[in-house]
């Protein structure tokens, strides 16, 4: 039991076997009420969270008929601006900093330089479809690439510029990069509001 749970926690992003076993002992020290609340939340996670069919971010709703998240459905968000981020936690932090008014697209991963099938590792087809759709019906003017400031992030940004380049050229879109002034290794997930603000203003 302990070993099995440790294995599960070790598979979480950024969690090693040591931390994983600490989690298990933490749970062992808790009472039954805590554990049942915990398992109930885990059990109902998939039922109360949907994946937005436009930006591919997870959002909470009990109504499974709704397919767009609150940002995609919000008419006061700037549809001429589309920011491409790696993961949900990046989106969360950018949104929290309250400096960006456009729309989003979540790639769902990054590409290392050695990646053999880059188009399958991230939502590349979905992104092309989204950009084409936004050009057609939402007046898209600029795509902001907001990938991490590290080799994988750079590589991902390069790949995206390549696959979007026919659409960008044809429709004269602006392709900008967030945070050229940010230092190497900066994780968008942890960036503070002020830094985010200047990274957004200084995008190139
Ligand atoms: Zn959405």
List the helices and strands and how they pair.
Layout: H1 2-10, H2 17-29, H3 32-48, E1 49-51, E2 58-60, E3 78-85, H4 88-97, E4 102-106, H5 118-121, H6 124-138, E5 142-146, H7 151-171, E6 174-177, H8 193-201
Helix pairs in contact: 1-2, 4-8, 6-7
Mind explaining what this structure looks like?
- The chain is an alpha/beta fold and 204 residues long.
- It is 48% helix and 14% strand.
- The protein contains eight helices and six strands; from the N terminus they run αααβββαβααβαβα.
- It has helices at 2-10, 17-29, 32-48, 88-97, 118-121, 124-138, 151-171, 193-201, and strands at residues 49-51, 58-60, 78-85, 102-106, 142-146, 174-177.
- The site of zinc ion has 8 residues, from loops.
- Zinc ion is lined by residues 52, 54-55, 57, 68-69, 71-72.
Briefly characterize the structure:
The chain has 204 residues and is α/β, with parallel strands linked by helices.
Number of strands: 6
Strand count, sense and barrel status of the largest sheet are:
4 strands, parallel
Q: What separation lies between the terminal Cα atoms?
A: 52 Å
Bound chemical compounds: zinc ion
Strand content: 5-15%
Category by helix and strand content: alpha/beta
Low-confidence stretches: none
The number of helices is: 8
Average pLDDT for all residues: 91
Shape: globular
Q: Strand sequence of the main sheet, in spatial order? A: 4-3-5-6
What is the share of helical residues?
40-55%
Radius of gyration (Å): 19 Å
N-to-C order of helices and strands: HHHEEEHEHHEHEH
């Amino acid at each position: 039991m302990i070993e099995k749970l440790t294995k599960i926690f070790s598979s979480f992003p950024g969690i090693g076997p040591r931390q994983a076993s600490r989690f298990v002992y933490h749970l062992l020290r808790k009472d039954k009420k805590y554990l049942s609340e915990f398992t109930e939340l885990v059990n109902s996670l998939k039922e109360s969270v949907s994946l937005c069919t436009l930006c591919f971010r997870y959002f909470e709703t009990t109504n499974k008929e709704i397919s767009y998240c609150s940002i995609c459905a919000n008419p006061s968000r700037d549809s001429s601006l589309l920011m491409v981020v790696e993961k949900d936690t990046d989106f969360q932090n950018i949104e929290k900093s309250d400096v960006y008014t456009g729309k989003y697209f979540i790639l769902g991963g990054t590409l290392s330089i050695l990646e053999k099938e880059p188009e399958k590792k991230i939502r590349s087809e979905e992104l092309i479809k989204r950009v084409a759709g936004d050009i057609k019906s939402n007046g898209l003017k600029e795509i902001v690439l907001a990938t991490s400031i590290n080799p994988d992030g750079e590589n991902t940004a390069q790949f995206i510029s390549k696959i979007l380049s026919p659409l960008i050229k044809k429709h004269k879109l602006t392709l900008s990069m967030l945070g050229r002034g940010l230092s190497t290794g900066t994780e968008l997930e942890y960036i503070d509001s002020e830094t985010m603000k200047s990274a957004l203003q200084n995008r190139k």
